[in-house]
Amino acid sequence: MAGGGEDVRSDADLLAAHVAGDRDAFAELIGRHRAHLWAVAVRTSVSDDDAADALQEALLSAHRGAHRFRSDAKVSSWLHRIVVNAALDRLRRERHRRDLAPLDTTADTVVDPTDATGHVELRMSVGGALATLPADQRAAVVAVDVEGYSVADAAALLGVPTGTVKSRCARGRAKLAVSLGHLRDGTSDTAGTDRTPPASDGGGTPQPVRPERGGDR
């Protein structure tokens, strides 16, 4: 904000100002939510590099598509959904690319689920399945089952009643149970989220800076 003071405009006001041509509004908006959006990207990505790329894509999408924001939603919920969708789209594309790759018949085809390769394949399988869910169910399942929010906190994040979150999670989980029936029970995602989010430039668009491991949010 000009003069170095704290910008007291709401998220919605900042987004509207960005649409109207304010060159600093988007940077201010993303600065408020970057740590959370980075955590979302990490939890729904295979690696730090994938998370950084997904966040980059998501913020560029939000920057360019801000005029399509519906004022009846929360800006933070809108940004959250864009990041989730970008991360899952990357997982789905990578899984599709691997499915089309020639099979190495000389390699051992038994995958140890505890090794790095097995972990990546599991994440891509789960991400691909999540990406097939309707957007509202996907957002609820990711918030509760991937990010670990309580139903009440997920409802506040997504801007919907708690009963709606419960219903969407139930329907989404039922579909995932069918899609992921081939996976063994008890496998969980243990990816950490205590990593430093990538920086942005002064214009509000993210820079392709890779995060350092071990950083504090």
Describe this structure as you would to a colleague.
This protein is mainly alpha-helical. It has one domain (10-97, 116-179): RNA polymerase sigma factor, region 2, helix turn helix motif (Rna Polymerase Sigma Factor, Chain: A, Orthogonal Bundle). Helix content is 59%, strand content 0%. It is built from eight helices and no strands. The protein has helices spanning 11-20, 25-43, 48-65, 75-100, 116-131, 135-146, 151-158, 162-179. α2 packs across α4 (75-100). The chain is globular. Residues 29-96 form the RNA polymerase sigma-70 region domain. Residues 181-217 are annotated as: Disordered. Residues 126-176 form the RNA polymerase sigma factor 70 region 4 type domain.
Based on the model shown, name its key terms.
single chain, 217 residues, mainly alpha, Rna Polymerase Sigma Factor, Chain: A, 8 helices, 59% helix, disordered C terminus, RNA_pol_sigma-70_dom, RNA_pol_sigma-70-like, DNA-binding, RNA polymerase sigma-70 factor, ECF subfamily
